[in-house]
Amino acid sequence: MSDPQKLTIGKAINLGLRRAMEEDPKVLIMGEDVGKLGGVFRITDGLQKDFGEQRVLDTPLAESGIIGTAVGLAVRGFRPVCEIQFEGFIFPGFDQISSQVAKLHYRTQGKVKMPIVIRVPFGGGIGAVEHHSESPESLFAHIPGLKVVSVSNAVDAYWGIQQAIKSDDPILFFEPKKLYHSGAMKSEVDVEATPDQLFKSRVVREGTTATVVAYGPSVKVALDAASAAEDEGKSLEVIDLRTLSPLDLEPVFESVRKTGRLIALSEAPSESSLTSEIAARVQQECFYSLEAPVLRVTGFDTPYPPAKLEEHYLPDLDRVLHTVDRSLAW
């Protein structure tokens, strides 16, 4: 037996991809600069060297072509893993994703499967230019036929990418780019463990004062806020959604029935978002348990700002704590 390894999220995804490719020769990786360069974030580093150019393919700068090619490969029995270099570049491929990837299984009455994984580095916090810090996950969670996953730690990154690749359903795999190489989010990964189910939420910190639900890069913010709130005598329960479609909200309902309060946290704009859906569902299911309205801490309903302003745009510890205080004062 091997000892658990302490990994960053980026390294965990790399090792997860490597293991999936070792176990199944039908797994292919394709995208812009994923081969010789190893991706702009070096997530696919070393894979082309070890598996060859026939299985790790550098593609043209054409997201629609990448996704369209993956559809053809999936029809022929392959399991393509596409990388979208930055989330803001995904929209040329939106038609392929929404019209073909999401619907072919349904359209063919189950005869054609779409075991495609689309990896999407997303979110802000890296000081990038326009189109490099978006949070478009709500758009894809709204499309029937797609599953949407967002990891927040190395354990879920390692196992989640493998589970996604093994799935016969198409999955968008949103990865928090600002946490790829963060030492603060390193986790011990036991490569011989039995992983949690991919489509299940998880309580990552127990508490009694209020519930904070988050996903992807916002989970770290929620955990930091919970640690700070503890110094003030407040006990925040933090839930990591892990999967955004389908949403597993039962742990959230159970938590809210205990705490009576919910703060939904996300970097994405607030209007018509996942936090909107969470608020609606919780108020529908837990109305008589709520001591205050569901409150949200999100990005703003504006285009993502220039890098020097992003610290004012992104939800942070202070905004979460302020919202907890608003909830408690209700």
Automatic annotation (TrEMBL):
Coiled coil: none annotated. Keywords: Oxidoreductase, Thiamine pyrophosphate. This is Alpha-ketoacid dehydrogenase subunit beta. InterPro entries: THDP-binding (IPR029061), Transketo_C/PFOR_II (IPR009014), Transketolase-like_Pyr-bd (IPR005475), Transketolase_C (IPR033248). CDD domains: TPP_PYR_E1-PDHc-beta_like. Pfam families: Transket_pyr, Transketolase_C. PANTHER family: PYRUVATE DEHYDROGENASE E1 COMPONENT BETA SUBUNIT, PYRUVATE DEHYDROGENASE E1 COMPONENT SUBUNIT BETA. GO terms for molecular function: magnesium ion binding; oxidoreductase activity. It comes from the Bacteria. Its cofactor is thiamine diphosphate. Residues 7-182 form the Transketolase-like pyrimidine-binding domain.
